[in-house]
Amino acid sequence: MAAVITDDIVKQFEGTTAVNGISLSVADSEFMVLLGPSGCGKTTLLRIICGLEKQTAGDIVIGGNVVNDLPPRARGVAMMFQSYGLYPHYKVRDNIAFPLRTQRVPSAVIKSKVDWAAELLGITDLLDRRPRQLSGGERQRVALARALVREPTVLLLDEPLSNLDAKLRASARNEIKQFQQRVGTTTIYVTHDQVEAMGMGDRIAVIDHGQVRQIGTPTAIYDDPADRFVATFVGSPPMNIIAWNDGYLGFRPENLLPREMIDGGDVTEFSYHVDRWEYLGSERIVYGKLSGVEAAHEVTAKLPPAHVSMESIRPGEKHAFGVRNNMICYFNRDGARAHRH
Amino acid sequence: MPGIARTIGRETGFYSAVAFFVILAAFPFYWMLITAFKTNADLYDLSNIPFWFNDPPTLDHVKYLFEQTEFARWLLNSAIIGVCVVAITLVTAIPAGYSLTRMAGRSGEALGIGIFLTYLVPPTLLFLPLSRIITVLGLQDSMWSLVLIYPTFTIPFCTWLLMGFFKAIPIEVEEAAIVDGCSIFGAFIKMVLPLSMPAILTVVIFTFTLTLQEFVYALTFISSTAQKTITLGVATDLVRGDIYFWGELMAGALIASVPVAIAYNLFLDRFISGITGGAIK
Amino acid sequence: MVAIADKAVQSRSRFKFILDRPKVLGPIFVAPAILYVLVLVGLPFLLAVYYSVSAYTIYTQSYHFVGLRNFIDIFHSQIFRQTLANTFIFTIGSQIIGLILGKFGALVLLRPFRGRKLVRALIVLPWAVPVALATVAWEWMFDSLYSVINWTLVALHIINRSEAPNWLGNPHLAMLCVIVVNAWRFFPFAIVIFLAGITAVPQDIIDASIVDGAGFWRRNYQIIVPIIAPIVVVGLIFGTVFTFTDLSVVYLLTNGGPVNATQVLGNLGFQIGIQSGDVAHGAAVSLIMLPVLFVLVILMLRFIRRREI
């Protein structure tokens, strides 16, 4: 178990800069999520930490040692790939045993470790099958077993859930998080799915265009975003942004409520022209426009199901809505968070 | 009933076209086949119908081939040359193909095409300087000259073929092996090679057939009968003075053609997908 | 448990990880192939160029530089001029016939039918079997006395026995023969190339054109041909290069005769440079092939790029 530090990592490929000076530090046993849209550089950074790519500038420090010139096998890292990268010509048992074989571990020890890893992930009865005979969820578990079997210092995961069905994803998310807490390995997890990030991470690093926008706990990212990008990337539906004075004002859909639902006076009020709404069972999403206010997109409100006067929110009509002032975020014109009116 | 007539017409037309192509392609081989087994009396009698046996078939020509000519020796020569050239090609082209696919980036693609283009440099241009080089090396009139020279065209072609196959292996398997403790070399040996076995087999067969088919270099470098390859020997040695021993000639051609024809048919689909870069399955 | 982290090595001992470095391993892997090609193709090529501007024969092995005299000599030779023309006729003729046969053959083999596998195996034979052996079979078929072709023509009463042509002995007929044999050799390859191209055309494009009202000919020439053109052109260029520089068919059937009617550059180079030992002039003859090849290679490179899309 060790801490990982990336010190001002820069990576350039033939004319484009994929990673533009990223410094972050992951504490021992921490579950850190690298979150960002496709092409933002998060996977490149992960591969640099792993040793599959060499950075153009900057240092990678694992467990106190600078590992820049070491190949992956000397860094003590294990990686789980997006398409799992299982060895098609080996049985599951040999897939899991492979990292131990390359380290010349004695076979008796290999056998007990493979059994341990298989049991940890509940795939003991799959040991004699081949990867092509497994389902997506089973393959994912084999890949994880293979990564964990040699008890690495750092575990790296590259969007491991993106190839699973939506239903499987939620349970897989849970499993991975539980393992990590049980085994305690320092983990770095790359994803573009902010639900995964929020649900799994101890801390999240939000990355865009090769740079870190914000690092913080899920709460910090969600309630206290550092800029417009972070604010709109995390949260579904995204935060509403409207033009305001010299910059922008943002509030989350669940905070835009009918005026009568909010008690207290520290509220900014709006006249909300409703266009339509969607009934999603556990919540209702309302789409519309705010009078006298400029916004790039439709303004959404997320209402809880129990709201009594739902029937009174009719499309085509204007309604009085409001947002508590302490739920409002202000942004400068350049997108950075401002902390005053 | 005009519909049926039209259908019958179309079907007949179609099968006639099929028959046309089959006869066009295969008749010379049929001719080769029956000539090989016809008695000389039958062959050289103009009043006979040539399309079938008039006297019963005979193995005389085949016997003559094996007993009175160096045919068996030629078969042996070609086999040895084939095996040696395949070995040289494998050892050279497999690493080269892998390196150009995985390790060389943009210039790898260009280098690959460059190597492939040397396949097009004609033997009828190179045979002059090569024959001088062969003489200097003391390999003139020896089948080992061919073992040295044949890889000059098998290596470029096979490197290009293998590049296409290697590209199709998902790189994640190799990267997983690297993270799991292999060096790049280790990942190549333990992952890429086992997974490329079908491609490597194709390369072996293809290379072997290329060496069997070659004629120009064999003709240029080898003159003594005992050193000839099977193709060269059959095409040039079965003539005594001005007299062609057609029966033996056809028998020899037939025996020498059969393995190549079989190999091509078994591996045709693989060859095609290799040549067209996997564009069709 | 193997504590891998403890093995984190100082960057000084670089040799330990030499098999991990693509910048080292890459060149090592490619080196043997490149070496082979440079020494046994590149070097001879330069040597050939040098011979063509020298006075080298195997009798007087002088590397004395003579400028372009060899080339002037051969251009003055009527035999050479005829050879050059013959080579073009031979190549263009056999490629065109081969292409046409290839196109229609591909259409025939396109849809599955009973026995298609066997038919395909038979049709591939001319390409699969060694050139020299197939050519010898044709030599037998064209034999002046026993030609099966003549026998059939006589039997069908199209000609008399006395009118039976001497295929390989008549200058015009001989050229026809070598063209036919080469086209016959080439057309299975052309079929394979066309099939590959046609089956690679996505069915939805064809369906869309049918819905849009395109008939058979329009579909073929305005939709399919442009899409398969790149792959067909690559195949055509292969075939043309090998035909233009060929020696085997002509050597075995006619040896350039009768009276140079079928002489081609490859065979002439062989006769002059190898059989007569006049290396300098032989090299000059062979080098004339280069400009044509060069143009073809440039064309092919352009089409290869398009194909890979």
Q: Rounded to an integer, what's the Rg of chain C over CA atoms?
A: 26 Å
- Label the CATH architecture of the largest domain in chain A: 3-Layer(aba) Sandwich
| Main sheet specs of chain C | none
Fill in the CATH topology of the largest domain in chain A. Answer: Rossmann fold
- Please give the count of helices of chain A: 8
Whole-number mean pLDDT of chain A? 89
CATH architecture of chain C: Orthogonal Bundle
Oligomer: heterotrimer
Order of SSEs of chain A: EEEHEEEHHHEHEHEEHHEEEEEEEEE
The chain-level structural class of chain A is alpha+beta
TL;DR of this structure?
Chain A is of the alpha+beta class. Chain A has 8 helices and 19 strands.
Record the SSE blueprint.
The complex is a heterotrimer of chains A (341), B (281) and C (309).
Chain A: E1 4-13, E2 16-26, E3 31-35, H1 42-50, E4 57-62, E5 65-66, E6 77-80, H2 92-102, H3 107-120, H4 136-148, E7 154-158, H5 166-183, E8 186-191, H6 194-200, E9 203-208, E10 211-216, H7 218-223, H8 228-233, E11 240-244, E12 247-251, E13 257-258, E14 267-279, E15 284-290, E16 299-303, E17 318-324, E18 329-331, E19 337-338
Chain B: H1 2-37, H2 40-43, H3 60-68, H4 71-103, H5 105-117, H6 123-136, H7 143-149, H8 151-167, H9 171-179, H10 184-195, H11 197-213, H12 216-221, H13 230-237, E1 239-240, E2 243-244, H14 246-275
Antiparallel strand pairs in B: 1-2
Chain C: H1 22-52, H2 69-76, H3 78-110, H4 116-128, H5 131-141, H6 148-155, H7 171-199, H8 203-211, H9 216-244, H10 248-253, H11 265-275, H12 279-287, H13 289-307
Helix pairs in contact in C: 1-12, 2-12, 3-7, 3-9, 4-7, 7-9, 9-13, 11-12
